[in-house]
Amino acid sequence: MREITIVPLQEFEVPLEAENIRPDIFATLSLEEIRDLEVWEGNRRRYLSDLFSVAGNDGTGECLIRLDGDFSRVKRIGEGMREGEILVRGNIGMRAGSGMRGGSINIEGDAGDWLGREMRGGSISVKGNAGNYVGSRYWGERCGMRGGEIEIEGSAGAYLGDHICGGQIKVKGDAGDFPGASNRGGAITIGGDAHLPGAEMVSGTIVVKGRARVLPSYGFQETAEIEGQLLWKFVGDLVEKGKGELYVALVEDDGQLDK
Amino acid sequence: MIIKGGIVYDPTNGIFGEEMDIFLEKGKVVEEAKGKEIDARGLLVMPGGVDAHAHVAGTKVNTGRIMRPEDARSGLEPKTKLLRPCTGYTVPNCYAIGYRYARMGYTTVFEAATPIIESRHTHEELEEIPIVDKGALTLFGSNWEVLECVRDDDLDKLAAYVAWGLRASRGYGVKVVNPGGGEAWGFGTNVKGLDDPVPNFDTTPREIIRGLVKANEMLNLPHSVHLHTNNLGKPGNYTTVLDTMDTVKDITSTRDRQVLHVTHMQFSSYGGTGWRDFESEAPQIAEYFNRNDHVTMDMGQMIFGNATTMTADGPLEYNNARLLHAKWSNHDIELEDSSGVVPLVYGRKMPVNAIQWAIGLELALLTESPWKTLLTTDHPNGGPFVNYPEVITLLMSKAKREEEMATLHELVAKRTVLPTIERELDWGDIAVMTRAAPAKVLGLAEKGHLGVGADADVTVYDLRPEKIDPARDHKRVKEALGRVKYTIKGGEVVVRDGEIVAVPRGRTYWVDASVPEKDAERVQVDLVEKFEKYYSIQKSNYMVQDAYVTDPVVVKAGVI
Ligand SMILES: [Zn+2]
Fold it and tell me: Which residues of chain A have a CB within 8 Å of the CB of B68?
């Protein structure tokens, strides 16, 4: 596969919008044309080569993009991508892989907010932590993630998989507030703790292998074994006449829950 | 300015496709003028478009924007040296509304419903809509003072209150939405027919409609009562509408216009007993219009895709939200009405939506006189106003209708008569439905035509009516209707080749109607009590001040 390596020439003070950093866009372009792609630095129009060194194979063809350095202020990388691969040796900014349909993004550092927002296919992995709204929807939309996979070795922020309609999210560490809100068919696994998972869930599953506070609108069903661990199984959210499945290892109980 | 050699359609002045020059000076059409020449040789020329019913400003529009952040992801247009940034499709921002109307050749738009108490907000938004002239219709149909006057059969006091309410809201006309229903909704119920009593007020929708129509004519207002019927949106509601129109037939209009305008008729032309046997009764409605001259209507054409319904019909929106499991906003407007907002998607394969789509077209095609059927989509209830070119081409081309019907649920062929309608409207009909008739229905003497003294609002389309056949080349026609060659507003070129080139401020029409002092005083006695006891704000803070209407056109009317 053709490889292109991008290294920031400076530390960015103003956030960048770089939705052109996308393997399937690169695939059709020569190195020179890639260097001429547009990037916005705040409200200023720039070219990729103004802000980054761009090196690698010339010619066209399916593409692996290596991002070396700190991209935590570079937004929208891999947005809407359909194929190819992005490998980030460092942190990546907001909205990475949002709306992506295929290919993969592998991040060795941390990811910002809105990672894989409304993605439909492909895979994203993060070695570090991820921000808020991983695999979620933009506010007001009916569906967040509809397909594909997101795996996070560290922890995720609030609104993990908000309005998820399909696909899978796995977080090894903790998730913040309201993971899997309005779930309609997605699968979320959280290795650590979470707060109030599955509000307004209609269908799909959420597994919390650590501690979680469970909404009073969930009905306890039985205990169940998942990957060798005994978990409490709930069904809800009954507010939505939901049939979603919520599994929790340690239930934070304030006496309201009927189990 | 001279617009040279256009093929002019100006139905008000009996001009249908004549080659002529138009002279503009100081914002008006004149006999003869010098100056800049606009080359319109062979091109289709009409007066600037007039939209008599759209929801473009006020709290419910803003509620739609707040409820639909996702809507703002479409329709993005970055700012330029001249233009402000635009967002949105069903609930565009204020700038987008002005620019998009202008690009379609429209120069006037009337906001269809503002409660008096929220009119200051309505005007704040109208002020920010550039280019087009504007006005707002004021809601009266579930207002306590109105209900009491109607109950007491005190028409003089009712007229005095209407005059005061128009002044308080800087409103242009009397809007009535599901009369009595807004009040009933405060108690969790609705009125189900014209003779269903309004809770606590010992009156009925029939009495409210008749009372307000009579008061409207006593005040000699430029526009008639503008009615959103009872039972709107419900299967079988066409009988309610026929009954409604008959109930005002004996009242004489004091002006050369209808005595009642029934709005977005598509939503009121339904047959069947429920959604399963839902069918079109548009032929019955059109037949009524063909036999009667005291009423007018607008289409309320439905457009497939995203819409945001917003109306003072609170119980209707509750039903919509429950039926579609959609987002819902519900609002109680103190002593004046209720309202609701529900976003939805109209689907081609949904039987009900396919039939609704056909009903709007049936109404326009089966009603013989285009003067009785204004072209609207009840923006954004039936769909966004940017789809007017789509609606126009559907009316002008049977081939296009057939292409569309082939993509719809098959019930459209069984539950409507649209497939059997051969009629194709011509440019004269379209000029009436989008210019001459809306101006006449609203009572705007200087709009919708190109006679001497008219406002210098002109549209030049990049279409050669003598060469193009809209029935066949509907794609090309639709494109040209959406991106006009020139829009001239108040004598200034605002759009050239589909691009905005100038952004003047539009003016706002409102009606100042005089009433006898003794009646005005009786209203004030009632109002003092109502504000003390019930309103959340002081009477002194209630009126919209002139500062909120910086370019007013005050139309005088009244009893004395
Ligand atoms: Zn309306």
Answer: 140
Q: At residue B560, does pLDDT exceed 80? A: no
pLDDT at A59: 83
Q: Is A140 on the interface with B (CB under 8 A)?
A: yes
> Regarding the domain delimited by A2-252, which CATH topology (the fold level of the hierarchy) does it fall under?
Pectate Lyase C-like (2.160.20)
How far, in Å, is the centroid of ligand 1 from the Cα of B30?
35
Exposure class string for B32-46: b at 16+ Cβ within 10 A, else e = ebeeeebebeebbbb
For chain B, give percent helix, strand, coil, nearest 5: 40, 25, 40
Cα(B498)–Cα(B485) distance, rounded to whole angstroms? 6
**Domain B46-445+454-500 = CATH 3.30.310.50:** no
The neighbour count for residue B276, using CB atoms within 10 Å, is 9
Confidence of residue A131 (pLDDT cuts 50, 70, 90): very high
The strand pairing partners of B44, in sequence order, are B7
CA distance A95 to chain B (A): 15
Q: What's the B130 CA to ligand 1 centre distance in angstroms?
A: 21
Domain-by-domain residue ranges, chain A?
A: 2-252
Measured between CA atoms, the residue of chain B closest to residue A138 is B70
Q: Which chain A residues have a beta carbon less than 8 Å from that of B71?
A: 140
Q: Tell me what ipTM this predicted complex has.
A: 0.82
The Cα of B157 is separated from the nearest Cα of chain A by a number of Å equal to 46
What pLDDT, on a 0 to 100 scale, did the predictor assign at position B45? 98
Judged against a pLDDT cut of 90, whether residue A257 lies above it is answered with no
In this predicted structure, the answer to whether residue A254 has a pLDDT above a threshold of 90 is: no
Which residue bears the tokens 């892989």? A97
Say what the pLDDT of residue A249 is. 94
pLDDT at A61: 85
Domain locations in chain B as residue ranges: 46-445+454-500
In a mutational test of the A interface, the residue from B67, B70, B87, B91 whose CB has the highest number of chain A CBs within 10 Å is B70
Looking at residue A252, its pLDDT comes to 86
